[in-house]
Fold each of these.
Amino acid sequence: MRPPGGADRRWWAAVAVAALLCGGAAWSYARAAGEATRAYAESRDTALAAGREHVARLSSLDGRRAEEGLRTWLEVSAGELREELERTKPPADVSARATVTDAALTALDDRAGTARLIATVRVEITAAARTAGPPATDRKRLEADLVRTGDGWKVTALTALPATGT
C-alpha cells in the first residue's frame, strides 16, 4: 500500500532542500579555501615567521664577534632602522641571546607589503666582566614594523613597548 500522494511530494521536496543546502555548503567551503584566502594566509605565516626570527636576531649579539653580529643585524633590517644600525658600533663587552617566546601580527597589508608584529622576548645578558653566576635575564615586549623586499620580510622599526598590568 502506498502513502497518500502528498507524502511522496513532501519527501522529494525535503530531499531537494537537503541537496540545495549541501550544495551551498560545498560552494561556501570552496570559496573560503580559494586562492586569494590561501595566498593571504601564506603571506601572514611567512611575515610572522620572518618577524619572529628577525626580532630574535636584532635582540642578540655575541660580544666576542660584534662585527659579525652587526652584519646579521643589517641582513634582517631595512629603511631607517638599517641606516641607524649602519652608524652603530656594537658593544664588545656584552653578549645577549634572545628568544622570542610569543609573537603575533597585529596588521598585514599584503598588497602594500607591510606588516606589524608584537613579540615577547626573553634576553639572557652576559657581561664580559662577569666571571661567575648565571646570565642576567630580561623580558621585553617589542613591536616591529616589517616590509616585504626582494629578499623577503625585513624589519624597518623596532620599538620597546611599556610593560602594563601588575
Amino acid sequence: MRLPLIALIALVVWIWEVDSWLPGVYTVVLGVYAAAAVTWVAIVLRGPVPRWADWASTTIDVLVIVVLCVVSGGATAALLPVFFLLPISVAFQDRPLLTGALGLLAAVGYLTAWIVYSKRDDHVGFPDIVYTQVGFLLWLAVAVTALCFFLARRQARVQALQEVRSQLVAEAMAADERHNREIAEHLHDGPLQNLLAARMEVDELRERSPDPALDVVYDALQETAAGLRSTVTQLHPQVLAQLGLEAAVRELLRQFASRGDYEVIADLEDVGKPVSQTLLHRAARELLTNIHKHANATTVTVTLRRSGDRVVLTIADDGTGFDPTRITDSVAAGHIGLGSLLARFEAMGGEMEIDSRTGVGTVVTVTSPPEP
C-alpha cells in the first residue's frame, strides 16, 4: 500500500499549489522513497521477510514523512494526516511491541516536524492545536497497540487450534494407515493364500483330467487372485514403504499407462521417504484415477520435486477439464475423493491448487506440509 500513498503525497503540493521550501530535496526524497517501495514489493514477493526488515521498513516510513514535512514548507499541513495512518497500518502485523514503538515514533516525528517548521518561520509560531494533535497521536498509539495485542492473542489461539487440528488429522491418518496395513496383511496371509492354493489344486486337476469347466474355474480364480492382490497393494503399497515416494509414483504411472493409450511424461526427483509420503501417494493415485475415469486425456505430465522444506507433486492433463468450484457439489453428491484430499492437505498445513477449465485441461499442484 506504500505506492498509492506515495502517489497521493506527490499530488499534495501540486493540488494545493504550494511551493515547497526545498523543492529539489522534496523531489529527491520522494523519488528515493518510491524506488525503495518498489524494491520492497519485489523483496516481499520473493519470499519470507526477516522480522527486522518489518521494523526497518516502517521506521523508514516515519522518518521519510518527517523529512518530507520539514522540507515541504507550506505543504506540511497536508502531509501531517499521514502520521495517523502509519500506526494503524502497523497494527495488523499482530506485533504489539512494534506497533507501540512505531506509534510513539509517529507522535514524536509529528511534533518534531512542527518544531522545525515553527523555528524556521518565526511568523508561524507554534499553534496550540499541535499539542492536541500530538495527544491524539499518543492515544492512537495506545489504542492500536491494544488492538494489536488482542489480534495477536486471537491469532495465537487460532494457531493453537490449527496445530491441534493438524495433530488430530495426522493421528487419524496414522490410525487409518495402520488399519489398512492390518487388513492388507490379513488378506495377503489368509484369503489370498487360500485362493492361490485352490488355484494350484484346480491346475493339477486340469492336467490330470482336462475339462472346460475346470478351465472356467481356473480363470475365475486367477482373475479373483489378481483383483485381491491389487486390493492388497492399494491398501498398503509395499513399494512406498520399501523404496520411497518416487518409486511408488513411478509404479502408479506404470499401472496408469497400462489402462489406456496415454502418453505419460514423468519428471520425478528422488525425494526419499518424506513424512507425508502416504498422503502424497494417495493424492497421486486419486488424481490419476480421476484422469482415467473422467478426463478423456491423451497426455499426462507428472513432476515430483523438493522445494525447500516441502515436496511438490504436479499432475497435468490435456483432457476435458472441469469447474473446480463444483467440488463442494460433488462432495454433497457423495463423490468425496478430491474434497477429502483438499480437506486433509489444508488440515495438515499443505496445499492443493486446482487450475482447470472446461475443455482446456487440468493442472493440480500438491504441496506437502513442511517436512522436519
